[in-house]
Each structure stands twice: as C-alpha cells, then as structure tokens.
Design brief:
Layout lengths: L5 E3 H6 L5 H35 L6 H25 L2 H18 L6 H27 L7 H30 L2 H21 L4 H7 L3 H11 L10 E5 L10 H6 L6 H32 L4 H29 L6 H15 L4 H26 L8 H11 L1 H16 L4 H8 L2 H25 L4 E5 L2
Parallel strand pairs: 1-2
Antiparallel strand pairs: 2-3
Helix pairs in contact: 2-3, 2-5, 2-6, 2-7, 3-4, 3-5, 3-15, 4-5, 4-7, 5-6, 5-15, 6-12, 6-14, 11-12, 11-14, 11-15, 11-16, 11-18, 12-14, 13-14, 13-17, 13-18
Length: 462
C-alpha cells in the first residue's frame, strides 16, 4: 500500500466481520464491569457481619453508603475527562486500580472515619469505569451492534452484584467481613494488570488525537487482515460532529452543549434522572412496601430478585431494539413501564401474580434504563465521548439519590404504598418524552449526515 493511501477507519469498523481483537475488547470490558458491580455492592454484602463485629448501629452505616455514592458521582466526571485526555485504555486501568486498591485497603479499616474515606475513594474508581467501557466498545463495534454490546457489558455488571451475595453467604460466616474486600481488591488489581498488557487503545481515539500511526495500522490490519495498512498511510475518521475546540476540563464540558448538543445533552440528563428515580426507588423500597401490602418477607425479597431478572432480559432486548430501530424505539419502554409500576400499589395480586408483575416491571424499568446506557455514547464524537458519558452517568445520581430519599420522606408521613407506587410511575413518562425527542433528533441528524458531500471531519496525519 502506498504512503499516500487514505484509510477511513470508520468504514473499516463498519464493514468488519467477527474478529478476535474486538471479541477480546468486549470480554475484558465485561469482566472488568463484573468486578465493578461486585465492588459497588461490597459494602452491602459485608454490612451485617461488620455491624456485629464492630458493635455499631445499623443507621451509622448510612453515611458509609452515601460516601460511596458520592465517590461514584465524582468518578464519572474525573475518569470521563481522563478517558478523553490520556486514552480509554490507561483510564480504565487506572479506575480499576483505584477501586481495587482502596477496596483492598478496607480490609485493614479499624474505625468508621477510615471506612467512610475508603468507600468514597473506591467509589471514584467504581464510577469511572462504566463510561470508559462504554466508549471503548462503541468505538470498536459496528453501529448495528452497539446497543447490544453495551447491554452485554452491563450484564457483567449485574452478574457481579449477584455473585457478591453468593460469596458473602458462603464465605463471610467462616472468614469474616474482610473476605468481601479481599476478593474485591485482589481480583480488580489482577484484571488491571492483564488489561494493561492486553487491552488495545481505542482506534478512534488514536486517530482523533493523531497518535501512534504504527499502532493504528496494526489494529486496522487485525480488524481487516487483507487491507495491508501501513504506518505511513493517512488514517481518517468519519464523525457525526466535529471534535471540541479545546482540551481542558471546561472546554470538554462546554462542548457537550455545542450546536445540536445544546438540546440533546439536557434531554439525556433529564431522561437519566427520571429513569434513575423510579429504578432506585423500586430497588430500595419495594421489599418494605411489599411487606406493608401483606406479602411475606421471603416473597418481598424474591420479588426484588425477579425485578433484577426481568431487568437483565429487558436490557438485552432494549439493546437489540436500539440497534434495529434507533433511539425512538426505546421511548415505548417507559410508556409501558409507567402503568406497570402503578399496578404494584393498585392491583390485588396473588403471590404468583406479584412475582410475575415484578419481573415485568423490571423488564421495562431496568430495560429502559439500560437502553439509555446503550444510547448515550452514540450522540457524541470520539474526542468527547468519555466526558459525555461520564457526566450523564454522574448526573443520573441525582435521581439515584433523590428517588429513595423522597420516598423515605413520604413514607415518614404515612403515605400509603398505593400512592407511592403511583408517584413512582410518573418519572417514566418524563423519560419517554425525552427519549422520543432524542429519537427524532437522531433521525434528523442521520438524514443530514447522509446528505453531506464530505463526511470526514477528523483526520490524523501519517
């Protein structure tokens, strides 16, 4: 291939067949998200044994849980920015080392203040990994599979949270609460080491930044072996929108509101907040409200498990629908979720009917939320994608915190479960309106791009 050959990396990615490189990226990302999900729930798994060991009040641990949540919020912002500056690969390794290292240090925590500080610092790493994993995979897979791939990665996250409960039930009685953090510390550090040596950098990031043409050529040849790319080739990248003009933190954030993003970003953020309010309300309060409605503690706990199971299936189908029909298809999901959530407080379900209803609610509530996760990175250029996803996931914590908090205040005022579930059914309607507007914006932009005579906006010199 001649030194002047021009290779459009976007076309290479779009026409690729199944290959080992992209499969490796997906597997490593899913494994890292599994560990991320485990560490997110580690404190909850260790809490009962920790309370007995330290002789502290249950309410005292609320501060520890809150510290972790605020760490996650900070992590999405910090590591999202780092992903756009130093690269997805190094930022993913750094975030995994962060939550793994501080989780491991928790083994030696000996007072509440130390525990609060360590959970906050571990939360920074936990919150940083998801936007980086989303961005890296979105930049390696064809557009027809992007939603599905993000949904699969999030299944790793869900599996990590589920596995932690089994580990806690099996090992904590014999080895104490510290074993939860031994596992949550050592395994991420091993994963970070493996990823440092085997995980490739985002090819789109390298092209946008004009870095390492030899590495770009190597990756291109792995994706399409017969192409014969060389470091002297000129690699270009077709992007939906131009890259941000600046590289500092403020420039990266203000770029989220440039041009049509001035409408898209607020719509995404409001959709995330609304979705998170209902999802975390149900995760936090459903067992208590179910018992207040007459179900046994076992039925209430099993109902929450069915909620999670339905959500896992819904996430996969939401990813498929996004790939097949675009963002507009997801708008139907929260519209269906709204009356289903309301029915939990209004309908008189049998025991089996309650479990079936919880599975259906999880399918649409969690499925819709994961559909947002699959869609968010597709609205932004590679140069700003990690920042955009990090901010969206961090802003979503407003709903994650606000939903359960508002419900707790209303429960304190003796509001009946039927009214609480009715109120929880309102945010999905807000989400549906935002997603419908996003879908129309995506369709308009796609049509505009298809009519442009020159679609190449980013180019890296050889």
């Amino acid at each position: 291939m001649s030194a002047t050959a021009v290779i459009d990396v976007s076309d290479v990615i779009e026409r690729q067949r199944r290959n080992g490189l992209v499969l490796k990226v997906m597997i490593l990302s899913t494994a890292m998200m599994l560990l991320d999900g485990y560490d997110l729930h580690a404190m909850a798994f260790a809490a009962p044994a920790l309370i007995r060991s330290w002789g502290i009040d249950k309410a005292t641990l609320g501060v520890v849980f809150s510290a972790g949540v605020f760490g996650i919020l900070v992590g999405g912002l910090v590591f999202g920015y780092l992903g756009d500056r130093i690269g997805r690969r190094l930022a993913m390794v750094a975030s995994t080392v962060t939550f793994g290292g501080f989780s491991l240090l928790t083994v030696w925590a000996n007072d509440l203040n130390m525990l609060i500080a360590l959970r906050f610092l571990a939360g920074i790493g936990i919150g940083g990994l998801a936007p980086l994993c989303f961005s890296l995979n979105l930049e390696y897979v064809p557009s027809r599979y992007r939603g599905t791939v993000v949904a699969v990665i999030m299944l790793g996250y869900v599996a990590g949270g589920s596995a932690g409960g089994l580990i806690a039930a099996w090992l904590v009685p014999h080895l104490g609460w510290q074993i939860v953090f031994w596992i949550g510390g050592v395994l991420p550090l091993i994963a970070a080491l493996v990823s440092f040596f085997t995980l490739p950098e985002s090819i789109k990031f390298l092209v946008v930044q004009g870095r390492q043409p030899d590495e770009v050529a190597r990756i291109v040849n792995q994706i399409e072996p017969g192409l014969g790319a060389e470091p002297s080739s000129r690699f270009v990248l077709q992007e939906e929108e131009p890259a941000p003009a600046g590289t500092g933190p403020l420039a990266q954030v203000t770029a989220l509101f440039d041009g049509k993003l001035a409408i898209i970003t607020p719509l995404l953020w409001v959709a995330y907040i609304a979705s998170s309010m209902t999802m975390f309300f149900l995760n936090s309060w459903t067992p208590i409200l179910a018992e207040a409605s007459g179900y046994t503690p076992a039925q209430a706990a099993f109902g929450l498990s069915m909620f999670s199971l339905g959500g896992a299936v819904g996430a996969l189908l939401a990813g498929w629908a996004l790939d097949r029909f675009g963002v507009l298809a997801i708008a139907a999901v929260p519209i269906i979720a709204s009356p289903l959530v309301a029915s939990l407080g209004l309908a008189d379900f049998s025991d089996v009917g309650f479990l079936a209803a919880m599975m259906c609610v999880g399918f649409f509530v969690v499925g819709g939320h994961q559909g947002l996760n699959s869609a968010v990175g597709q609205f932004y250029p590679s140069a700003n994608r990690s920042t955009a996803v990090g901010w969206a996931l961090s802003v979503a914590k407003i709903g994650s915190i606000g939903g359960p908090l508002i419900a707790g205040l209303l429960i304190g005022r003796q509001l009946p479960p039927s009214s609480l579930f009715l109120l929880a059914a309102l945010p999905p309607l807000v989400m549906a309106s935002c997603v419908a507007a996003l879908g129309l914006a995506q369709r308009s932009r796609t049509e505009a791009i298809s009519e442009r005579p020159d679609k190449v906006n980013q180019a890296a010199p050889a």
